[in-house]
């Protein structure tokens, strides 16, 4: 480096202040992009930033605390890099000034490299274990007014209400502002139950039931997802938790506990026979008929659901028909085969399925 600020190749060296500003600008831009990437808060969109229960709010506060601590440590690291670069490009400074800068740099290294990170980790450890883990743990037996059992399958959620004959799939109904104890099981591989707006993620391990409390502050739909890779259609294993007003929930539960009503028309009656004589009855249950299959979801009140195939497609006539004809088109690898039906059989079956209310 010569006295005119040029390096040995004749190029002008970049000022240290300019490099520091660039580093800080890049760091700020990166943090802003990370924040923007996670800011979707629309209800029903599975957002971790839209809490609807005390448990999810505590988790969110812990996240912001961890992010703030990480930002402080990151900024300290950037400052240390800038100081190191500045010292490297300064030559011929007085000895006293160099010693002072060395002392300051050493202090910053100790502060941002040891003291601040250790202090942040200790504080966050106690907050997480005392304030968050306990608050999000499942309640003790008998502390909740109702219980629900959720069983994970490849790739749908079976939902049962102990004390009632009600069974459904993929759409869990609970009364609003009511603590609900959810027992989590799996019928095959490891799954993970996660409704981020209501509580934390809990694994479903074969032979080891887990529990979780669900509580919703207000009426609405809260989307959830299997959060542990469980096979080909893991990404299409979603669920919806509906927090209903108590009266509406009681009416829903009473209807779900009933067996299927008799077919309302000759065409629906013929469709019921198609269901019972084809492969449908070997995989699905319809209470009130001889269908007792356990491979696929219970279809007794199919038309009470808003979606099909674990929220993959809407529960409308066109989609229902397409699903019956070619389920592999929507969820390749699922256990439901396409049915080889005549036009009349298909029409009758569809009429029967549309009557399962």
Descriptive account of the structure:
The protein is of the alpha+beta class and 357 residues long. The chain is elongated. It has three domains: 16-136, no CATH class; 146-257, Immunoglobulin-like (Sandwich), CATH 2.60.40; 266-354, Sandwich (Immunoglobulin-like). The model is unreliable at 1-11 (pLDDT under 50). The longest helix has 42 residues, at 95-136. It contains nine helices and twelve strands. The strands form three sheets. A five-stranded mixed beta sheet has the order 3-2-1-5-8, with no helix packed on it. The chain has a five-stranded mixed beta sheet with strand order 4-10-9-6-7. Strand 2 and strand 3 (167-169) form a beta hairpin. The N and C termini lie far apart (83 Å). The chain is 43% helix and 16% strand.
Concise structural overview:
The chain is an alpha+beta fold. The protein has helices at 16-37, 54-88, 95-136, 246-257, 266-277, 280-283, 317-325, 327-330, 343-354, and strands at 146-153, 156-160, 167-169, 171-175, 180-186, 191-194, 202-204, 210-214, 220-226, 238-244, 307-308, 313-314. The chain is built from 9 helices and 12 strands.
